[in-house]
Design goal:
Layout lengths: L21 E2 L5 E2 L10 H13 L5 H8 L3 H10 L18
Antiparallel strand pairs: 1-2
């Protein structure tokens, strides 16, 4: 793909669409949420709509707002989309220091 001049970005909450590939400002192809393993088109729509209307503060928050199943959540986690989020909405005093 690279020899043909095609470059890919990673799926991300800010730029990915539900079911269609898109281009970023550098002409990199951004895959949709449905390109992730175990993420159905319906789940992808839910994720996309939740991203438009909310900022996720935790994995728990993401799961409640998107209603993804366990397999899809694990796929999203392995892809690295949830790396910057804490697991629960509950405040942890030890993580503040």
């Amino acid at each position: 793909m690279h020899s043909r001049g095609l470059r890919f970005s990673k799926v991300n909450f800010e730029k990915s669409l539900a079911n269609k590939f898109t281009l970023d400002e550098n002409k990199n192809i951004i895959p949709p949420f449905s390109a992730l393993e175990f993420v159905t088109e319906t789940m992808a729509e839910d994720i996309y709509n939740a991203c438009k209307n909310n900022k996720f503060i935790s994995v728990e928050d993401f799961t409640k707002l998107t209603k993804v199943n366990k397999n899809a959540l694990e796929s999203i986690r392995q892809y690295g989309l949830l790396d910057s989020m804490q697991e629960k909405n509950q405040l942890d005093l030890f993580s503040m220091f």
